[in-house]
Write a structure and sequence with these properties.
This protein is mainly alpha-helical. The chain has 4 helices and 3 strands; from the N terminus they run ααβαββα. A 3-stranded antiparallel beta sheet has the order 1-3-2. The longest helix is centred in the middle third of the chain and has 21 residues. It is globular, with a radius of gyration of 13 Å. The N and C termini lie far apart (29 Å).
Length: 100
């Protein structure tokens, strides 16, 4: 395990993106909000996904991201992070909560 694994998993949005691939691969990715979220806050989250979280995961090769369609699939290094990701989803479900 490298520092890169922990850096990628340090953010709840990135953990949720990766965990979504455990359930469905490939799929369209978009921020899922719960409760009442303002349109402005939703826009900021979408910008963060497009310009921070998805590029970081793609550069680490944990996902393959097509920015045109916003579809993601497991990247060539997804299997490197999958055991830790499965452990987190099994044992620490609350670590996937994010605030918007």
């Amino acid at each position: 395990m490298t520092d890169n694994h922990f850096e990628v998993l340090a953010n709840g949005h990135r953990r949720r993106i990766l965990a979504s691939l455990l359930e469905e691969n490939p799929h369209s990715v978009f921020p899922v909000t719960t409760g009442e979220v303002s349109a402005e806050r939703q826009r900021k989250v979408q910008i963060a996904f497009r310009h921070v979280h998805l590029p970081k995961l793609d550069a680490a090769e944990f996902i393959d991201w097509d920015p045109e369609s916003d579809r993601i699939a497991e990247g060539t290094r997804f299997e490197d992070i999958e055991p830790l990701l499965r452990y987190l989803t099994d044992e620490y479900d609350d670590c996937f909560e994010t605030s918007y």
